[in-house]
Amino acid sequence: MRVPVSLVNAFQNDFESTLGDFLLQSRLIDGKDLLENKRYLTRSISPHVKAFSELFNRKEGSQTDGIDREDYWAEGNAKNRRLSYFLSFMPPNLFRVASVWAELHRLGFQFPSTLFSGSGEFRGLEFGAGVASGACGILAGEKFAPLGLPPSGSFALIEQSKAALSLGADWFDYLATAYGQNYRARGFHRRIELNEAWLPKNAPSFHLMVMSFFLNESPLSPEEISLELLKTAENHLEQEGLMIIVEPALKLQSRKLLLLRKALIEKMRAGTSSLKILLPCLGEQACGALIKEEDWCHEEVDWMRPKYLRELDLLTGLDRRTLPFSYLVIQKTKRSLNEIFSNFEGKDEERYRLVSPSKNLSKRTSEFFMCGQDGKRRTRFTPEDLEHPDRGDLLQNVKLHGEPSLTQIDSATLKRYS
Ligand SMILES: C[S@@+](CC[C@H](N)C(=O)[O-])C[C@H]1O[C@@H](n2cnc3c(N)ncnc32)[C@H](O)[C@@H]1O
After folding, report:
1. C-alpha of residue 129 to centroid of ligand 1, in Å
2. DSSP character at residue 418
3. From the alpha carbon of 190, which atom of ligand 1 is closest?
4. Burial (CB count <10 Å: 0-12, 13-18, 19+), residue 48
């Protein structure tokens, strides 16, 4: 997935400085130079980062069970543990969510201005907000790849850990101010039972709902989760509002998201749904990655990590130069994809997205997997201008021949964005 250069670069200097100022003001660190202090990172932060990482990367095979431990925020030295998540996992998750926002931007998505014509205020919501990485990702996304949010608004954060929630709400307010956005967070400390109503009946409707690395913590099956998720979107999303779900790129977690998409589509077709699944698949066709059990689907984005995170990666053996993830974007809308995405051209059935890296077979020819209305295809392409597409890129007006097992593209327009 390609994101704007300004977003890629935003996390080095300015972000680290803003983060340091916030931590200092919140008395979570005693001096800004602690973020550069190897001894401090080694002793106080990296052991917690390793423990979190082991928990999140629970071995493939035992992943079907959720992480049903409400207190994982509180183990050991709770303050350092929270700070470790905040320093190590918040910025990457924030960036992932911002990247999905930027993807909507590059495809030409804009919120209709009439959506905010009532109070003029934006209302967002993050489920399982933790330290508000998802909500803050929207702030960053809107700053560097705007979708037309109004100048002021609020973000409801729902989270079962009181301490994480409090840190997240403060951080959201701080970042919004630093970005010059008149947005404020409202924290709701509660545990959501995912097989019961996620919101009270009298809860307001929202323009945006975000879930970042939340659903995979539930032990419920994708089919079970789809029931209440659908009701929540139908009942509490504004018309033209969005739901963004970001999940790990691990095979089993990613396949669970594909199965969730499948369950949602089945239920939407069985009833009179006002929802549409927009991304990543550019349509509601059957998922090509579900055909083979060993297959799955994920995205990757490059960014410039904050300096302290580079150091932390060296200390912990993690590598966050590239950020993989799986995602889903749903909208409550009656409009067609061509109306929603102003950068779409040509016919729906001639539009494909690359879902794998592009391998150079020669200087002229590359090979990759791509998904379109008719599923997944192993494809070879010899573009005349030698501009080879890569994972996440969009090919339009595609003329091809061959079978899904080996397709040859005769001609296509590669939709490039800055
Ligand atoms: C991996 S963290 C992700 C936090 C944040 N969204 C992010 O992307 O960094 C998952 C969060 O979801 C919260 N959570 C998990 N299940 C929950 C539930 N059923 N109700 C409320 N919060 C929940 C956890 O406490 C945790 O803070």
Report:
1. 6
2. -
3. 21
4. buried
